[in-house]
């Protein structure tokens, strides 16, 4: 049995001052705690740095992934089992029409009008084809077409994301989105093409792996609480967890009172650096316990 841990850094999740140091501090912390517990463990324990999220990759069965969280006391952590974060599909809908002067709309095929009808039709999927008990979020944050007030453009683009916890529902909605876009565009004499630009599945946590790693946290006296909350945001670590039994945890990075009140994906975000100590300890002690049990 063995385990490989890879520490990764996600630049837009950490303040610039931390980007260069987070990986090194976590690696050093992992190595020190690991050395304490792994001298008698049977197996292989490796550390690496590969440059994306604060995270972990496990071979055979586990380890974890973490990211200091906003709004939580530094060092206070949490984890869950089952599905803990939503899938995400980045959708690009390109609508093709026929451009022309706004004074002569009869000689054009308006892609903006088609895009508006597509957007409205897609929202009906959530209310009429998804179980009300299922979380589904379909958000289009980009709608671009044309650059002159009196000219009907020849094309328009919508971009957005689909998120859900259910993989069967995700598959169904992606198929229906393609059908609705194609048929709606044809009804208005245009064409539409849907591209799933990038995607990640929902994050599924293995209960046995999570329980084993939690024993290591308890031995170290770390404050890691089991929670039942799910995140509507996505996590690309899910693609690893879908192939290897894994666990996932978050570590608090500070509260608003600490000056850490800015959300993720913001250049002004700040974390309390002492959170790195707890993150490293949780990372290595959990891996050590997993090796002992396997």
Please count the helical segments: 6
Global outline: elongated
- Distance from N terminus to C terminus (CA atoms, Å) equals 7 Å
Strand order of the largest sheet: 3-14-4-13
Structural features, described:
The strands form 5 sheets. A 4-stranded mixed beta sheet has the order 3-14-4-13, covered by helices on one side. The chain has a 4-stranded antiparallel beta sheet with strand order 8-10-6-11, covered by helices on one side. With 294 residues, it is an alpha/beta fold. The chain has helices at 16-38, 111-128, 167-187, 207-220, 238-241, 275-293, and strands at 3-7, 45-49, 68-69, 77-79, 82-85, 88-96, 100-101, 136-144, 151-152, 155-164, 191-200, 203-205, 224-226, 249-252. The protein is elongated, with a radius of gyration of 23 Å. The longest helix has 23 residues, at 16-38.
Please specify the SSE layout and strand pairing:
Layout (H helix, E strand, L loop, with lengths): L2 E5 L8 H23 L6 E5 L18 E2 L7 E3 L2 E4 L2 E9 L3 E2 L9 H18 L7 E9 L6 E2 L2 E10 L2 H21 L3 E10 L2 E3 L1 H14 L3 E3 L11 H4 L7 E4 L22 H19 L1
Helix pairs in contact: 1-6, 2-3, 4-6
């Amino acid at each position: 049995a063995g385990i490989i841990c890879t520490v990764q850094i996600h630049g837009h999740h950490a303040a610039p001052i931390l980007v260069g140091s987070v990986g090194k501090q976590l690696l050093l912390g992992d190595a020190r705690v690991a050395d304490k517990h792994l001298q008698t463990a049977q197996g292989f324990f490796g550390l690496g740095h590969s440059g994306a999220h604060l995270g972990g990759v496990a071979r055979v069965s586990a380890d974890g992934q973490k990211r200091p969280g906003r709004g939580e006391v530094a060092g206070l952590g949490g984890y869950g089992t089952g599905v803990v974060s939503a899938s995400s599909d980045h959708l690009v809908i390109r609508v093709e029409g026929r451009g022309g002067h706004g004074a002569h709309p009869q000689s054009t095929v308006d892609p903006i009008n088609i895009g508006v009808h597509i957007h409205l039709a897609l929202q009906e999927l959530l209310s009429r084809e998804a179980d009300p008990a299922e979380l589904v979020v379909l958000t289009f944050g980009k709608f671009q077409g044309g650059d002159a007030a009196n000219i009907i453009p020849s094309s328009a683009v919508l971009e957005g994301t689909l998120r859900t916890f259910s993989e069967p529902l995700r598959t169904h909605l992606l198929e229906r989105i393609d059908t609705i876009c194609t048929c709606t565009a044809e009804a208005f004499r245009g064409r539409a093409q849907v591209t799933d630009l990038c995607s990640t599945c929902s994050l599924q946590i293995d209960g046995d792996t999570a329980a084993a790693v939690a024993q290591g946290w308890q031995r170290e006296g770390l404050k890691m609480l089991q929670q039942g909350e799910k995140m509507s945001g996505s996590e690309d670590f899910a693609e690893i967890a879908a192939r290897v039994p894994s666990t996932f945890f978050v570590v608090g990075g500070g509260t608003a009172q600490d000056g850490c009140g800015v959300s993720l994906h913001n250049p002004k975000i700040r974390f309390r650096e002492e959170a790195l100590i707890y993150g490293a300890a949780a990372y290595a002690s959990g891996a050590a316990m997993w090796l002992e049990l396997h």
